[in-house]
Amino acid sequence: MNGLFAEHVTVRYGRRTVLDDLTVGPFPTGRVSALLGPNGSGKSTLLRAMAGLGEATGRVMLGPDELSRMSLAQRTRRCLYLPQTLPATVHLQVLESLLAAQNATGVMPDVTGGDEIDAALHMLDIFGIADLAMRYMDELSGGQRQLVGLAQALGRHPDALLLDEPLSALDLHHQFAVMDVLRRETERRNIVTVMVLHDLNIAVRMTDYDVILRNGKIIASGSPRTVITPDTLRQTYDIVARVETCSRGLPHIMVDGLS
Amino acid sequence: MRVPDDDTVTASHAISPDLSDFARQVRGSYRMLLRRRLGILAVIAGCIVASVVLDFCLGPSGLSVGALIRTLLHPHDVSAGQSVIVWQIRLPYALMAVCVGAALGLAGAEMQTVLANPLASPFTLGVSAAAAFGASLAIILQWRLPGVPDAWVVSADAFVFAIGSVLLLDMVSRRRNAGTGTVVLFGIALVFAFHALVSLLQFVANEDALQDLVFWTMGSLTRATWPKLGLLAAACVVVAPLSFRAAWKLTVLRMGEERAASLGVDVPQVRRGALLRVSILSALAVSFVGTIGFVGLVAPHIARRLLGEDHRFYLPGSMFVGALVMSLSSVAARNIMPGVVIPTGIVTALVGIPFFLAIVLRRQGLS
């Protein structure tokens, strides 16, 4: 099977079982997938479990390779989780922070064939923040730091990229710009990208495979148009919503109220 | 956002033409930055040497610089008294200042990083307090470890408790779900617990022992001897390279624990390694010279301002700054009041506080 998938994943925090024998995927390669669901539904937990962070049982496969049998260093090189928290405001230059992320587990084999600094600048450039390279992280806004975090992640050239609310601190322009970059890079590198999203309109318009979670259970999975329906939205978020077609023929979610 | 041109598609590292100039510029300024940091380290190192020379030359004995150097080069050609002053007092005293400062500076720097707390230091997390308790057991209750020679009794007891306190901190940090906050709060609890125990011993102590203990807790470099100096220096030489080897991991850790883990850093392992190194350095330093913990708190903050948080520079920087502050304090301790050596712990705090406040009030320190 292709893509990233997880089988029989169980995660417990203390006595509370967050995910119970969950099987999900495959998240397709070359496509951006979204993980949707209300707060506390287990989205971050699932991403972290697939990335090998925290204690989880079950099997995680990336194509033919079993990630869940690899060491942490190996595994994070293949499959990278980007936490929801922004990079801390440390007295470290943006460029240095990318170099550090690159070298965190020993010097990375040079994926790009180019020079380390060039590669880092290129990553900053595709997110439109090359001009911040020599600025200190503790001088940047939250949104700028989020972009740096994305550049750090993409700069490690993982085969699977698991992003936890990567748009949370960004303005509208940058939300769309980042989605564009992620779609482009995902396709070009033929990698798996899975992101936790709260904006259903972005999900329905700009992702290719969606999974909706509630209380650690999958409500629906598949293409956005089949997954995001009035019915699933009522089940998931307890809201009354419509999926309308806008004047350009694109789907748009309208929320009428609570159910 | 840039639209990828064909170049970037064929070779992912290729930089679009208008970026290549910029890349050259950035590379230039990054190289400059690295050079500047090396320069700053070199300047601090120079200052340390100057301060040690000053420390060696200035003092209450009234020997001229020429006489001191002659004694250093030809110890047998001068009077026994002069030789003792130079070889048994001045030199170990001046060098001990450097070693203690370096050890506490490095220990504080690693502690602040792995515990993600700007207040972390051997002083604030109970290592000094534990050492003081060990010393008070030796001084007041004459409790001694078997087989320890007289000259080492106080240091040995202090060391046992200091290392014990860090191992306790380590045990707490090993517990599952123990966040850095838990560890710091536990350290603070240790401070209060040991202070209370020391007070209790002071309460029952006789006058002489009480005076000895109070003097010990003030921290003084006059306790320096060659074997102690050698032991501490050896510890620094062994431990520092291990710290430097973890520099990248520690740098990434500064960006957030979860982020570091997601980049493949085994955070619990890095933290344990760092705490072990910290425990050896700080316990030795504190047990030899008494409560001189302030350097461990300030030196990392100064180094961070001067060199940033790339730990390849920050760790040696904190070591150097610690050594310099300590050495300058040592000079001040012997020269503020003619003929009196003020306990170094007092001077260190008084010298360090202006630095510290300047940094804190700029509000750009560790947030």
From TrEMBL, chain A:
Its main location: membrane. It is found in: Cell membrane. InterPro entries: AAA+_ATPase, ABC_transporter-like_ATP-bd, ABC_transporter-like_CS, P-loop_NTPase, Siderophore_ABC-ATPase. Signal peptide: none annotated. It comes from the Bacteria. CDD domains: ABC_Iron-Siderophores_B12_Hemin. It is a peripheral membrane protein. Keywords: ATP-binding, Cell membrane, Ion transport, Iron, Iron transport, Membrane, Nucleotide-binding, Transport. Residues 4-240 form the ABC transporter domain. One of its GO terms (cellular component) is plasma membrane. SUPFAM superfamilies: P-loop containing nucleoside triphosphate hydrolases. This is Iron ABC transporter ATP-binding protein.
TrEMBL record, chain B:
Its main location: membrane. GO terms for molecular function: transmembrane transporter activity. GO terms for cellular component: plasma membrane. One of its GO terms (biological process) is siderophore-iron import into cell. Pfam families: FecCD. Keywords: Cell membrane, Membrane, Transmembrane, Transmembrane helix, Transport. It is a multi-pass membrane protein. It is found in: Cell membrane. The chain crosses the membrane at residues 38-69, 89-107, 119-145, 151-171, 183-205, 225-244, 278-302, 314-333, 340-361. CDD domains: TM_ABC_iron-siderophores_like. PANTHER family: ABC TRANSPORTER PERMEASE PROTEIN MJ0876-RELATED (PTHR30472:SF25), FERRIC ENTEROBACTIN TRANSPORT SYSTEM PERMEASE PROTEIN (PTHR30472). Belongs to the binding-protein-dependent transport system permease family. FecCD subfamily. This is Iron-siderophore ABC transporter permease. It comes from Komagataeibacter intermedius AF2.
